[in-house]
Amino acid sequence: MMAGTTSHFTLNTGAKIPAVGFGTWKAGPGEAGRSVELASESGYRHFDCAPLYGNEKEIGEVFRASKVPRDQYFVTTKLWSSDHTRVAAALEKSLSDLQLSYVDLYLMHWPISLDPNTGAEYGKEDRIHGHLAGWEFRDTWKEMEKLLEGNKVKAIGVANFSSRNLNTLLETAKVVPAVNQTELHPFLPQDELHRLCKEKGIHQTAFGPLGGSGSTLHEEPIVTSIAEKRNVTPANVLLSWGIQKGWSVIPKSTNAGRIRNNLEGVFSLFDEEMDQLNSLAKSKGRRFNRPNWGTVVFHDDEGLNLE
User: Fold this and answer.
1) What is the pTM of this model?
2) Tens-digit pLDDT profile for residues 244-279
3) Annotated catalytic, 106?
4) pLDDT digit string (tens) for 134-156?
5) CB under 8 A, 24+ apart: contacts of 286-289
6) Of 44, 53, 73, 122, catalytic
């Protein structure tokens, strides 16, 4: 990271989360471990995992062999939707697979509880018709809060929570989430959610900070002109924008050069450059990750002209 840039953010627990993390979503067998190893060697100290990604065991081998002291890197993992009624057991499984004694952050992956007893393969449950009756995400949060009584989780948070769902959670929560991890990039700045999280002291982590599959963000003239002018890559521009918005960012790559550059190339954007990037959502709003849960999840998208 270049001098003068933000290297960490402070969570409402007092813990520090590195501004640039390494994402492991869609990293396949053989690829996940190698890319995490490359990321660690390149200086990353924030790794974003989830059992749904199917690669925690492979990543655990890298953590086990790492020469970086455990207190010097930050690990996030997540609670999958069919595990909402068995929170402690799901955490134990992730810790075992990751070969860790604790995680720095444990997130509720989605605000939807799925029935764990349908016989469906893990992660391939019916997301539309398989919702668990008599249970909601506030019940899940109560179970997650209990984890803080032990020493296996340093902080708890949520992911993919809209402003409406966050407000619903906060009505009964004893512990305010430390983090809300959502899709955030110049096509989807989620301004209302950003305001709410800031007001409540909830840090946001941006997944898909470079856009998603088929994204043209890196080809936008505003992005490429800033990149050329500042002698950086379009990815550097997009990640730096997210960090200057106050978010940690978790790009993913399997390319050694890009892995290094995503971390080392973060720089400070000028105010007018931030304004230019902020203008992109006004004409080209787009959400790339939009799974169908059979119910509204992305309430903040209502009224926005998204593709």
Assistant:
1) 0.97
2) 999 999 999 999 999 999 999 999 999 999 999 999
3) no
4) 999 999 999 999 999 999 999 99
5) 286/187, 286/188, 286/211, 287/183, 287/187, 287/188, 288/183, 288/188, 288/208, 288/211, 288/212, 288/213, 288/214, 288/215, 289/183, 289/207, 289/208, 289/212
6) 53
